[in-house]
Amino acid sequence: MTDSKVNLPLRSGVGIVVLNKDNKVFVAKRIDNQKNFWQMPQGGVDKGEDYLTAAYRELEEETSIKNVELIKECDGLISYELPKNLLGIIWKGKYRGQEQKWFIMRFLGQDNEIDIKTKHPEFCEWKWIDLENITDLVVDFKLHVYKDIKEKVKEILN
């Protein structure tokens, strides 16, 4: 890896844990994903946007989900770094990873309100899974993020 890649900033982002009435977690499979990796909705914060506004926007852009209530804004930020093979490819090469603020939200709607065939689709399929399984399906470089989030959600649900 060249020094210029190491000096790239982290992108400011958000992540959203969406829980249904049975406390199952929404996950989706990325279109650009060749393996069986799933993730929770997440994305970048636009200039001038606060984290919560970004979370609601990203959630709707990626899943069409609007009918949610905020359960908790998680303390602190969690960051991850891209692996070397993705540096310079993801985010047009502007960032080396992402520093995220996470939110836990309750989905109040019906499953038929969820539509991943959005204007700029990122996902090819979605499902509800047990909280315990979110770390089984995630890409390696985000595993520590999902482990941390799983513990934060467990605290809230207990």
How large is the share of residues in beta strands? 25-35%
Global mean pLDDT: 93
**Count of separate structural domains:** 1
Q: What's the total number of strands?
A: 8
CATH topology: Nucleoside Triphosphate Pyrophosphohydrolase
Shape: globular
Largest sheet: 5 strands, mixed
List the helices and strands and how they pair.
Layout (H helix, E strand, L loop, with lengths): L2 H4 L3 E10 L5 E6 L7 E2 L2 E3 L6 H13 L4 E6 L4 E4 L15 E11 L15 E7 L13 H15 L1
Written account of the structure:
This protein has 158 residues and is of the alpha+beta class. It has one domain: Nucleoside Triphosphate Pyrophosphohydrolase (Alpha-Beta Complex). Helices cover 20% and strands 31% of the residues. It has helices spanning 3-6, 51-63, 143-157, and strands at 10-19, 25-30, 38-39, 42-44, 68-73, 78-81, 97-107, 123-129. Strands 1, 4, 5, 6 and 7 form a 5-stranded mixed sheet that branches. The protein has a 3-stranded antiparallel sheet with strand order 3-2-8, with no helix packed on it. β2 (25-30) and β3 (38-39) form a beta hairpin.
